[in-house]
Write a structure and sequence with these properties.
This protein is α/β, with parallel strands linked by helices. It folds into 3 domains: about 180 residues, FAD/NAD(P)-binding domain (3-Layer(bba) Sandwich), CATH 3.50.50; about 100 residues, no CATH class; about 120 residues, Polyamine Oxidase, Chain A, domain 2 (Alpha-Beta Complex), CATH 3.90.660. Helices cover about 40% and strands about 25% of the residues. It has 20 helices and 20 strands. A 7-stranded mixed sheet has the order 8-7-16-17-18-15-19. A 5-stranded parallel sheet has the order 10-2-1-14-20, with helices on one face. A hairpin with a 2-residue loop joins strand 16 and strand 17. Helix 1 packs parallel to helix 20 and helix 4 packs across helix 10. It is globular. The two termini are about 30 Å apart. Bound molecules: flavin-adenine dinucleotide. Flavin-adenine dinucleotide binds next to helix 1 and helix 20.
Length: about 500
């Protein structure tokens, strides 16, 4: 019997993982990727000897006992890569110099919080106790693994439910200390509406050392998975943008590339942007109310939408890798006022900069329409990017005296950059929450793992799931191939890279 063929659109982590598991299970797979390298958002590039990393901060599942580590081993993701676990998740600094360090060791965190605000003893104990309890479970892995694995979470189910309903902002109101009230909501980048459960789960994993940075960063991780895919016999065509999914009698049968060439397969999987897949490549012919509502409900600003990198001739020795710096005077950006800057200092990975030098990144929420309008005039767009990079550098100079003069390289990404580079709808680099009426269904089944009325077609990745995490999107690829094997009455098999 000849092997069934699968065409995969997109060589981000979801597409690569789907390809790897497909190859392990006897499918003949081919990935079409519009870019010149793998990884999608999980990528980096060089500027004047510095490596500017776009995405990950903490990769979870790095210790061999964790459930997610199994997937990383199957994908060869960490092969040959050292990982670095941070002492702090983030440090939040007020204008008067007061600092809240979110230590990843829960004992250290508890001591620090008690010293910061003894009157909040009860609230602090509650927070740390829940994180400690969650530390005994692989919560993210279990959540993504269906009923069978969810059952393992029974002992903590009530806590999971409780803290999933309280936002970080509301939880912070329970502290009596004004600085903690102000600082606590920023521990998770202040993404609006994030439940306090999320930092609790992050800290529960980090406390046991199950999170960290792969030395080499996002692209090193993506390249490892690409290598695994190729070693398994998979094929990737770069510079190959899919413009159309070919459909016959409501069956997806192939893809058409920008150059007009057509390619056929038994199964088509899109691991690309959701909107461009559903409303572009498929002309919006296979949608339902939930999909329509999701893509109409985009928030005004995009989390991580604007990123600026500086290559700096400075070591930043002893500085935390992640800082929230409250500002005495707000920073005006896109006509809005920001009272803080979120800063990452890549002083822990010497492979990203020449000796004695460091990459620093600042991330802000951003509005697509603002940059889209500006981008019609290349000069104005470039000037606006440079201006805001200069303003931020001025602010960093007050915290790191001499910073401005030590800058050797700068780069800026706006939502328009992301739109060009990933064909991402309105420049969203990560998905946003589903509208309330569909939230429950979307959290259970994603937005568009399949499309109504279309056979032979699947979607994987952060847009299909409306959830962003490297672990989640690679597991989606694994789950899809498992499902395809079941349909063919085949045993699902996996192998590890080593
Ligand atoms: C700033 C940021 C920080 C993050 N931090 C973390 C973190 O700390 N830890 C963590 O676990 N996760 C993190 N994430 C999330 C994680 O990186 C993503 O969820 C995940 O990498 C998304 O992978 P994907 O394959 O679903 O999508 P993408 O990476 O978007 O891949 C889609 C691919 O499809 C390609 N494509 C699109 N259209 C076409 C077309 N028409 N034809 C051919 N190819 C096409 C694109 O070029 C791209 O390569 C972060 C994400 C961002 C943006």
């Amino acid at each position: 019997m000849t092997a069934k063929s699968i065409i995969i659109i997109g060589a981000g982590l979801a597409g690569l993982a789907t390809g790897c598991y497909g190859q392990m299970n006897g499918f003949k797979t081919k990935i079409f990727e519009m870019q010149t390298k793998p990884g999608g958002v999980c990528v980096s590039w060089k500027r004047h000897g510095y490596t500017f990393d776009y995405a990950i901060h903490n990769l979870f599942g790095i210790i061999s006992s964790s459930a997610d580590n199994k997937v990383w081993r199957e994908l060869g993701a960490l092969h040959g890569l050292k990982t670095y676990s941070f002492r702090e998740f983030v440090q939040i600094e007020d204008t008067d110099g007061k600092a809240f360090t979110v230590y990843t060791n829960l004992d250290e965190l508890e001591r620090h919080l008690m010293a910061l605000s003894p009157s909040d003893k009860e609230k602090i104990s509650e927070f740390v106790k829940v994180c400690r309890r969650f530390s005994g479970y692989d919560i993210f892995a279990a959540m993504g693994g269906g009923f069978g694995t969810m059952i393992r979470l029974l002992p903590v189910l009530r806590s999971l439910m409780k803290y999933s309903k309280i936002t970080v902002e509301d939880y912070a109101k329970g502290f009596s200390d004004p600085f903690l009230q102000k600082a606590f909501p920023t521990i998770e980048y202040d993404v609006p509406g994030v439940p306090v459960l999320i930092p609790m789960i992050f800290l529960s994993a980090l406390n046991k050392g199950d999170g960290g940075w792969p030395i080499g960063g996002s692209l090193a991780l993506s390249k490892n998975i690409e290598r695994r895919y190729l070693e398994l016999g998979g094929e990737i065509a770069y510079r190959s943008k899919v413009v159309k999914i070919l459909v016959e009698n409501d069956n997806a049968v192939g893809v058409q590339l920008e150059d007009g060439s057509q390619h056929l397969a038994d199964i088509i999987v899109s691991a690309a942007d959701g909107h461009s897949t559903i409303f572009g490549m498929l002309d919006g012919k296979y949608v339902n109310d939930s999909i329509r509502a999701y893509y109409k409900s985009y928030p005004k600003t995009i989390s991580f939408g604007f990123e600026v990198w500086y290559g700096v001739n400075r070591e930043f020795r002893g500085e935390p890798h992640s800082l929230v710096l409250f500002q005495t005077e707000p920073v005006t950006f896109e006509g809005r006022e920001y009272n803080r800057l979120d800063v990452e200092i890549f002083n822990f990975d010497s492979s990203l900069a020449p000796p004695g030098k460091t990459v620093v990144k600042v991330v802000l929420d951003s509005n697509y329409d603002y940059w889209h309008k500006l981008s019609k005039d290349t000069k104005a767009y470039t000037e606006a990017k440079r201006r805001i990079a200069d303003i931020i550098a001025e602010r960093l100079d007050t915290r790191f005296s001499g910073f401005k003069d030590q800058i050797e390289a700068v780069d800026v990404a706006t939502p328009v950059s992301v739109e060009h580079w990933l064909a991402a709808y309105r420049g969203y680099c990560v998905p946003y929450p589903a509208p309330k009426e569909f939230a429950k269904a979307v959290s259970k089944n994603g937005v568009s793992k399949t499309l109504p009325g279309l056979q032979g077609f699947h979607m994987v990745g952060q847009w299909a799931g409306a959830f962003y995490s490297t672990n989640q999107v690679t597991s989606m690829g694994r789950d899809l191939v498992k499902q395809l094997c079941k349909k063919d009455n085949k045993k699902f098999v996996t192998t590890t890279a080593d």
